[in-house]
Amino acid sequence: MRTLISHLSSGPLDIVGDVHGEIDPLLSLMHHLGYDEHGSHPDNRKLVFVGDLTDRGPDSLTVVDLVQTLTEIQRAQCVLGNHELNILLNQRKHDNGWFYGEEFADNGYIVPQALANNNNRDRILDFFNTLPIALEREDLRVIHACWHAPMMKSLRETEGVIALTEQHEDLIEKRTENSHLDEVDISLEHQNQNPVRRLTSGPEERIHSPFFASGKMRHEQRVQWWNNYNETFCVFGHYSIPDGKPRGNQSSFCVDYGVGKRWTERRQGRTKGFTLKLAALRWPEKLIVFDEGESRQL
């Protein structure tokens, strides 16, 4: 039975951060890593994607098509991100309108995007349904947002991410139905106690001063789970680090450098030298390579 935890490829890897529809930075990054247009590498390296292939950027369609092709010919692997999960669950969000054929507008500005249609939606859903939530081998783990050992067991016992999500949603709804919890606390229960939610978008906690982000008021904030993580080295995305200050510790590393909002820099007229980047972590070298060619040691 295919489970939601898969074996991570052996040998040297290049683990790519959240792409968010930015096809040009992805192709540029692959070039600087030494891959050809078919995903072949002279040193037999393989690509691993941490999820969030889609939304925000100009061409989620081509990104998904490329990653699907690379995974099918076994030159890449990919885990499920929260943005793919939203689409699988048919949950419309602030920035996934492209999948429904709708333009993405932010503060009145239309972000240029390729829009999906009936001919490619089913293919995209079928591909997302094949993605595991986690990849692991003896020396390395890859997940989109959070590795939480107690919740990994449920991933090994099912092959259906939608069924697992809905099963836990029902359990949490029944448990909180007549409780004293308010709307925010119930939302946190769904986030923190549903293994699919927690692993693909991380644990959260209540805050006293709500803020506006991604089209709605937020009463919760993300928890830096990696501060208490000291197991097998884990690479993850999700927690955008546009300031360049790494998130993680001696046992973990976040490879999301914020390329998902690069459209804001292009809107200001920038064409190169971007602050928001797409990055890959080379393993086992622990070298970070960016889409415009620069690199640094972890």
Explain this structure to me?
- This protein has a six-stranded mixed beta sheet with strand order 1-7-8-11-13-12, with no helix packed on it. It has a six-stranded mixed beta sheet with strand order 4-3-2-14-15-16.
- The protein has 298 residues and is of the alpha/beta class.
- The model has no long low-confidence stretch (mean pLDDT 91).
- A hairpin with a 2-residue loop joins strand 12 and strand 13.
- It has a single domain, classed as 4-Layer Sandwich (Purple Acid Phosphatase, chain A, domain 2).
- It is built from nine helices and 16 strands.
Quick recap of the structure?
With 298 residues, this protein is α/β, with parallel strands linked by helices. Helices cover 30% and strands 22% of the residues.
- The structure class reads alpha/beta
**CATH H-level homologous superfamily name:** Metallo-dependent phosphatases
User: β content, as a range?
Assistant: 15-25%
Number of helices: 9
- Strand runs, count: 16
How many domains? The number is 1
Rounded Rg: 19 Å
What is the succession of H and E elements? EEHEHEHEEHEEHHHHEEEEEHEEE
Low-pLDDT parts are: none
Cα-to-Cα separation, first versus last residue = 37 Å
CATH-assigned fold name? Purple Acid Phosphatase, chain A, domain 2
CATH class: Alpha Beta
Helix content: 25-40%
> Outline, from the CA principal axes?
globular
State the CATH architecture: 4-Layer Sandwich
Instruction: Give a short account of the largest sheet.
Output: 6 strands, mixed
Mean pLDDT: 91
Strands ordered across the widest β-sheet = 1-7-8-11-13-12
